[in-house]
Protein backbone atom coordinates (compact mmCIF):
# COMPACT_ATOMS: atom_id res chain seq x y z
CA UNK A 1 0.00 0.00 0.00
CA UNK A 2 1.43 3.40 -0.98
CA UNK A 3 2.28 5.94 1.68
CA UNK A 4 1.28 9.59 1.75
CA UNK A 5 3.27 12.76 2.35
CA UNK A 6 1.12 15.46 3.92
CA UNK A 7 2.74 18.74 2.90
CA UNK A 8 1.86 21.76 5.05
CA UNK A 9 2.86 24.85 3.11
CA UNK A 10 2.70 28.63 2.82
CA UNK A 11 3.85 30.36 -0.38
CA UNK A 12 5.76 33.02 1.58
CA UNK A 13 8.48 30.64 2.76
CA UNK A 14 11.51 30.17 0.49
CA UNK A 15 12.34 26.88 2.21
CA UNK A 16 8.81 25.72 1.40
CA UNK A 17 9.37 26.65 -2.24
CA UNK A 18 12.46 24.41 -2.32
CA UNK A 19 10.58 21.50 -0.72
CA UNK A 20 7.79 22.05 -3.24
CA UNK A 21 10.25 21.64 -6.13
CA UNK A 22 11.42 18.27 -4.78
CA UNK A 23 8.43 16.52 -3.18
CA UNK A 24 6.60 15.58 -6.41
CA UNK A 25 9.77 13.86 -7.69
CA UNK A 26 10.29 12.09 -4.36
CA UNK A 27 6.69 10.84 -4.34
CA UNK A 28 6.90 9.70 -7.96
CA UNK A 29 10.14 7.83 -7.28
CA UNK A 30 8.74 6.13 -4.16
CA UNK A 31 5.23 5.49 -5.51
CA UNK A 32 3.78 7.72 -2.78
CA UNK A 33 0.90 10.18 -2.72
CA UNK A 34 1.47 13.91 -2.12
CA UNK A 35 -1.26 15.81 -0.29
CA UNK A 36 -1.01 19.61 -0.25
CA UNK A 37 -2.36 21.31 2.89
CA UNK A 38 -2.34 25.12 2.71
CA UNK A 39 -1.75 26.89 6.02
CA UNK A 40 -1.14 30.45 7.13
CA UNK A 41 2.42 30.57 8.44
CA UNK A 42 1.75 33.81 10.32
CA UNK A 43 -1.05 32.03 12.20
CA UNK A 44 1.27 29.13 13.03
CA UNK A 45 3.94 31.54 14.31
CA UNK A 46 1.40 33.38 16.45
CA UNK A 47 0.01 30.16 17.94
CA UNK A 48 3.42 28.62 18.68
CA UNK A 49 5.51 31.67 19.60
CA UNK A 50 7.82 30.95 16.66
CA UNK A 51 9.18 33.56 14.23
CA UNK A 52 10.88 33.65 10.86
CA UNK A 53 14.66 33.08 10.99
CA UNK A 54 14.89 36.31 8.99
CA UNK A 55 13.94 38.25 12.14
CA UNK A 56 17.44 37.50 13.45
CA UNK A 57 19.72 39.35 10.98
CA UNK A 58 22.72 37.01 11.17
CA UNK A 59 20.49 33.93 10.99
CA UNK A 60 18.53 35.44 8.11
CA UNK A 61 21.70 36.09 6.09
CA UNK A 62 22.91 32.56 6.73
CA UNK A 63 19.51 31.06 5.91
CA UNK A 64 19.42 32.65 2.46
CA UNK A 65 22.99 31.53 1.73
CA UNK A 66 22.06 28.01 2.80
CA UNK A 67 18.88 28.01 0.72
CA UNK A 68 20.93 29.13 -2.27
CA UNK A 69 23.26 26.15 -1.73
CA UNK A 70 20.27 23.80 -1.70
CA UNK A 71 18.77 25.39 -4.82
CA UNK A 72 22.06 24.73 -6.64
CA UNK A 73 22.12 21.15 -5.34
CA UNK A 74 18.53 20.60 -6.51
CA UNK A 75 19.17 22.33 -9.84
CA UNK A 76 16.28 24.77 -9.40
CA UNK A 77 16.16 28.56 -9.68
CA UNK A 78 15.88 30.63 -6.48
CA UNK A 79 16.07 34.38 -6.16
CA UNK A 80 15.81 36.21 -2.86
CA UNK A 81 12.61 38.23 -3.06
CA UNK A 82 13.45 41.88 -2.26
CA UNK A 83 9.91 42.32 -0.90
CA UNK A 84 10.29 39.52 1.69
CA UNK A 85 8.50 38.97 4.02
CA UNK A 86 5.19 38.88 2.16
CA UNK A 87 1.82 38.96 3.92
CA UNK A 88 0.32 35.78 2.47
CA UNK A 89 -3.18 35.89 3.98
CA UNK A 90 -4.97 36.68 0.70
CA UNK A 91 -2.66 34.44 -1.32
CA UNK A 92 -3.22 31.44 0.94
CA UNK A 93 -6.98 32.03 0.93
CA UNK A 94 -6.78 32.02 -2.87
CA UNK A 95 -4.72 28.81 -2.82
CA UNK A 96 -7.23 27.17 -0.47
CA UNK A 97 -10.10 28.34 -2.64
CA UNK A 98 -8.49 27.02 -5.79
CA UNK A 99 -7.84 23.66 -4.13
CA UNK A 100 -11.47 23.38 -2.97
CA UNK A 101 -13.29 24.84 -5.98
CA UNK A 102 -10.98 24.24 -8.95
CA UNK A 103 -8.71 21.30 -8.02
CA UNK A 104 -7.92 20.66 -11.68
CA UNK A 105 -6.15 24.05 -11.82
CA UNK A 106 -4.56 23.91 -8.36
CA UNK A 107 -1.08 22.76 -9.47
CA UNK A 108 -0.84 25.43 -12.18
CA UNK A 109 -2.05 28.04 -9.71
CA UNK A 110 0.56 27.37 -7.04
CA UNK A 111 3.23 26.95 -9.73
CA UNK A 112 2.71 30.47 -11.02
CA UNK A 113 2.66 32.00 -7.52
CA UNK A 114 5.76 30.16 -6.26
CA UNK A 115 7.57 31.20 -9.47
CA UNK A 116 6.47 34.83 -9.11
CA UNK A 117 7.76 34.94 -5.53
CA UNK A 118 10.92 32.83 -5.59
CA UNK A 119 12.14 32.95 -9.19
CA UNK A 120 10.93 36.32 -10.50
CA UNK A 121 11.08 38.24 -7.18
CA UNK A 122 7.72 39.93 -7.71
CA UNK A 123 5.91 41.87 -5.00
CA UNK A 124 2.81 39.81 -4.24
CA UNK A 125 1.93 42.21 -1.41
CA UNK A 126 0.61 44.49 -4.16
CA UNK A 127 -2.87 43.58 -5.51
CA UNK A 128 -2.02 44.97 -8.97
CA UNK A 129 1.05 42.72 -9.22
CA UNK A 130 -0.95 39.69 -8.08
CA UNK A 131 -3.60 40.50 -10.70
CA UNK A 132 -0.90 40.80 -13.38
CA UNK A 133 0.69 37.46 -12.42
CA UNK A 134 -2.69 35.72 -12.46
CA UNK A 135 -3.66 37.23 -15.82
CA UNK A 136 -0.30 36.26 -17.35
CA UNK A 137 -0.96 32.67 -16.28
CA UNK A 138 -4.54 32.42 -17.55
CA UNK A 139 -6.42 33.07 -14.31
CA UNK A 140 -9.18 35.63 -13.84
CA UNK A 141 -8.09 37.94 -10.97
CA UNK A 142 -11.71 38.83 -10.14
CA UNK A 143 -12.67 35.17 -9.86
CA UNK A 144 -9.69 34.55 -7.57
CA UNK A 145 -10.55 37.62 -5.47
CA UNK A 146 -14.08 36.26 -5.02
CA UNK A 147 -12.59 33.03 -3.64
CA UNK A 148 -10.60 34.98 -1.03
CA UNK A 149 -13.80 36.58 0.30
CA UNK A 150 -15.72 33.30 0.61
CA UNK A 151 -16.45 32.54 4.29
CA UNK A 152 -16.20 28.77 3.74
CA UNK A 153 -12.74 29.16 2.20
CA UNK A 154 -11.57 31.51 4.97
CA UNK A 155 -12.76 28.97 7.55
CA UNK A 156 -11.03 26.10 5.71
CA UNK A 157 -7.65 27.88 5.80
CA UNK A 158 -8.10 28.73 9.47
CA UNK A 159 -9.07 25.13 10.22
CA UNK A 160 -6.04 23.76 8.31
CA UNK A 161 -3.78 26.10 10.30
CA UNK A 162 -5.30 25.20 13.69
CA UNK A 163 -5.14 21.47 12.96
CA UNK A 164 -1.50 21.84 11.86
CA UNK A 165 -0.61 23.47 15.19
CA UNK A 166 -2.48 20.71 17.05
CA UNK A 167 -0.35 18.15 15.21
CA UNK A 168 2.87 19.89 16.29
CA UNK A 169 3.58 22.07 13.26
CA UNK A 170 5.59 25.18 14.21
CA UNK A 171 6.81 26.32 10.79
CA UNK A 172 6.91 25.57 7.09
CA UNK A 173 7.58 23.43 5.26
CA UNK A 174 6.28 20.63 7.46
CA UNK A 175 5.70 17.13 6.16
CA UNK A 176 4.06 14.15 7.79
CA UNK A 177 4.59 10.53 6.83
CA UNK A 178 2.67 8.04 9.01
CA UNK A 179 2.01 10.81 11.55
CA UNK A 180 5.75 11.46 11.90
CA UNK A 181 6.67 15.15 11.50
CA UNK A 182 9.58 16.29 9.36
CA UNK A 183 10.32 20.02 9.39
CA UNK A 184 12.34 21.89 6.80
CA UNK A 185 13.37 21.32 3.21
CA UNK A 186 16.72 20.10 4.53
CA UNK A 187 15.00 17.03 6.06
CA UNK A 188 13.75 15.58 2.78
CA UNK A 189 16.21 12.69 3.05
CA UNK A 190 14.34 11.57 6.19
CA UNK A 191 11.05 11.87 4.29
CA UNK A 192 12.51 9.55 1.63
CA UNK A 193 13.58 7.07 4.33
CA UNK A 194 10.11 7.15 5.91
CA UNK A 195 8.56 6.42 2.52
CA UNK A 196 10.89 3.46 1.93
Automatic annotation (TrEMBL):
Q: Name one Pfam family in it.
A: DSBA
Q: Give GO MF terms, alphabetically.
A: isomerase activity
Query: Which SUPFAM superfamilies does the entry link to?
Result: Thioredoxin-like
| Group of enzyme by EC | isomerase
Q: Record keywords: Isomerase included? A: yes
Which reaction equations make up its catalytic activity?
A: 2-hydroxychromene-2-carboxylate = (3E)-4-(2-hydroxyphenyl)-2-oxobut-3-enoate
The record's annotation in Gene3D superfamilies points to: Glutaredoxin
> Keywords of this protein's UniProt record, alphabetized?
Isomerase
Q: Could you tell me the EC number(s) of this protein?
A: 5.99.1.4
Q: Which residues form the DSBA-like thioredoxin domain?
A: 4-195
Q: Which PANTHER family match?
A: GLUTATHIONE S-TRANSFERASE KAPPA (PTHR42943), GLUTATHIONE S-TRANSFERASE KAPPA 1 (PTHR42943:SF2)
Q: What is this protein called?
A: 2-hydroxychromene-2-carboxylate isomerase
Amino acid sequence: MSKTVEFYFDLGSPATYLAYTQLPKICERTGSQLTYIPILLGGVFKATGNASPATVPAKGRYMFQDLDRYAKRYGVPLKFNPHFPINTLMLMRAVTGMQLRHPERFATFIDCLFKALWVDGRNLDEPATVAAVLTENGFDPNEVLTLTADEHIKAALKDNTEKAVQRGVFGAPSMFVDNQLFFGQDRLDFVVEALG
